[in-house]
UniProtKB/TrEMBL annotation:
Keyword tags: Cytoplasm, Glycosyltransferase, Magnesium, Metal-binding, Nucleotide-binding, Purine salvage, Transferase
A single GO molecular function term of this UniProt record: hypoxanthine phosphoribosyltransferase activity
InterPro entries referenced in this protein's UniProt entry, alphabetically: HGPRT, Hxn_phspho_trans, PRTase-like, PRTase_dom
NCBIfam families registered for this protein in UniProt: HGPRTase (TIGR01203)
Listed EC numbers: 2.4.2.8
Pathway: Purine metabolism; IMP biosynthesis via salvage pathway; IMP from hypoxanthine: step 1/1
Example of a GO cellular component annotation carried by this entry: cytosol
Cofactor: Mg(2+)
The protein, known as: Hypoxanthine phosphoribosyltransferase
Lineage summary: Bacteria, Pseudomonadati, Rhodothermota, Rhodothermia, Rhodothermales
Source organism of this protein record: Rhodothermus marinus (strain ATCC 43812 / DSM 4252 / R-10)
Keyword field contains Transferase: yes
Subcellular location: Cytoplasm
Family the UniProt entry places it in: Belongs to the purine/pyrimidine phosphoribosyltransferase family.
Amino acid sequence: MACTSTPVPCEIPEVVECRGERFRLFLDAATLQQRIAELGRQISQDYEGKRPILIGVLNGAFMFLADLMRYITIDCEVDFLKLSSYGAEKVSSGQVYELKKIDADIRGRHVLIVEDIVDTGLSMQFILERLKEYEPASVATVTLLHKVEATQVDVPLDYVGFRIPNKFVIGYGLDYGQLARNLASIYILDDNP
Ligand SMILES: O=P(O)(O)OC[C@H]1O[C@H](OP(=O)(O)OP(=O)(O)O)[C@H](O)[C@@H]1O
Ligand code: HPA
């Protein structure tokens, strides 16, 4: 059959360069899609009849959220907020800036926060605090990646795609200085280039 590409492209490079640094293939597009399908199925079962609202955390989560929603088979809604704490660096500034608030009225609603990655955990902690103010019926968290050893604060993670080592990753929405978000697979910094 002819290759029709988008989420799973035909050719996946083993190594990419971004801002002069080398990254090697870590989670290929097919592996990502398979796991995201499982998460979508699980969420569909857990939220049957609840019409959850997925809150995507921009920018990084846009690709994961778009794919995850396609695997959710129950009625659901979507909205976004936008945070920033990394700038062009590979480490968190430690300060989370809220660049866009949610628009939806989530009072009394079942909310799923959708992140591409939980690293220090500061962004997720900030969101959980912020959303409490709106008095939702429930709040659960979904993250594609969790850097377990890097997480500095205790944040509840309900749905986790992959637990990963404490190394910088790019691709599939995750950037390095705004670049590399368009890669369909996830790449990890190569310490021994
Ligand atoms: O657990 P933490 O250490 O807080 O890191 C996680 C956050 O970092 C990234 O966002 P970033 O601030 O880089 O903005 P972006 O989504 O626009 O890339 C990512 O999308 C998460 O929101
Ligand atoms: O490893 C990472 N890569 C890209 N963005 C990130 N934001 C937190 N951790 C990361």
